Structure formats: C-alpha cells, structure tokens
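Researcher: Next sequence.
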Amino acid sequence: MDEQLSFAPDTLEAIGNYVYRLIDPRNGETFYVGKGKENRVFYHVNLSSNLVSENEDPVSLKIARITAIRNSFLRVIHVIHRHDIPDAAVFEVEAALIDAFPGLTNVQGGYGSDSKGPMSPLELDNKYSRPTISEEPAEKLVLININRIEDKSTQDSIYRQTQLAWRISKERAEKADYVLAVVRGVVIGAFIADKWLNATHENFPERISPDGDMLDRKGFIGRTAPPHILEKFVGDTGKRIAIDSMKHVQYPIRYWRI
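Model: Next structure:
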C-alpha cells in the first residue's frame, strides 16, 4: 500500500481543526505534536518544496528524524489525537499534548506552556502566592523565558543561565533598559546587558566550546540590575507577571516597549 499523504474529500469536510502526533515506527516514540486543518498532518513528510515552512529550520531535529525514518525504508506513523476542535480550544489542546510528551522535536513549546504547563501542587502554590507585577512598567524590557533552571540561589547563577543562547533581534535587544529572566511566568532575575554578541566560542570562551558556535543565536555580556530595579521586578522570591501583554505565549523572547 502506498504511503497516505492526504485525506479523502469527505474526511476533509468533516474533521475541522485537529491536533496530531508524529510517531517513530522504530521505537514507538512520539517525536512531534502539531495542530492543523485539512492535510497539514502530512505536510512534514511530503518530500517537496513544502517540506519546510518559512519559519522552520531545514536541518531541525524534526526533519532529521523524518529523514532517518525514511532512510530506514519505514513510514512515519500519523495519529490524529483529537479532531473537530473549536477554534478557541485548539491551542490549549495542542499545548496540553506537547506538555505530555517530553523530548519532542518541536521548536517551540505549547501555547501558554511557560505559565500554565506542568507544575507540582507546591509549584502552583509558590507561583500564585507571590507578589505580582500588575502596573505596566515604563522601562524598555527584554523578557527571556527559561524552561529549565538548575540554580536560582543568586542573581549571578541566574545571570549565567539567562545569558545565552537566544534567537533574538540584536537591534531590538540593544534598546532595552533591562533583561528579565522569567520562569513559569515569574520574574526571578533582572540584568543590564552591556553587549549583545553572536553565540560563539570567541565571544563566550568559557561557555561555548570551539566547535559549538551558534551563529543564528545571541548572548549578552552584562551585570545584575541595581537594587531598586531588583526590588521592582524580582523582590525577595520573584514576582508573578499579571499583565497579559507582558506574558510569554509561545516564544522564549518577549519585548516590552521596544
């Protein structure tokens, strides 16, 4: 049987919005979660000029995984996890599924995953019992969402984990007064970026190996913000962002007043 690369016409009319998974037949592992309409689920394995969208990296982990599967003379398994989803709910359904499968090749996290994703009861209590940033700041800010942080005991340790490496507009970042480190919607660090540089071994010799240059990403050389700024944005234990337009939605970088 030939590989299925499209739905039947009657199916296209019936399924509406859907969320899907791509599964590696070699080990049964889900490696990508997406949302779509019509024949979007087959888009990734269509070896044509439409294989990669304008916003995707042609050498991404997802494309590499699909190529490896096909080079093994196997076919990616497609699963429509939920279909006929209302427009208002499709982002939430996709995000919940992304959160449920660790190690995906998705470039971006699910919609709202940084603020509403998996947390323990204690983490939820810690988040919602914190003081909030509820008045719109006058400062120009770059807010960087950090999915994983190993040490938040000092601003120096948070700085090192916020420093690099990001796909960010250097032009916009250089206009910011401060860089804020955000974890699950809570600001835990505030810094002044003196320089934004390419994420290369030459610029960050202690952080990036000689063969680990990331020319499409940037990092910054900077310092901890002054005490009045730390008090305003971080406080003693971090402050929760209560302003919707400052919250991260899907991308790790958020600009404020820039």
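Model: The first strand starts at residue 17 and ends at 24. The mean pLDDT is 86.
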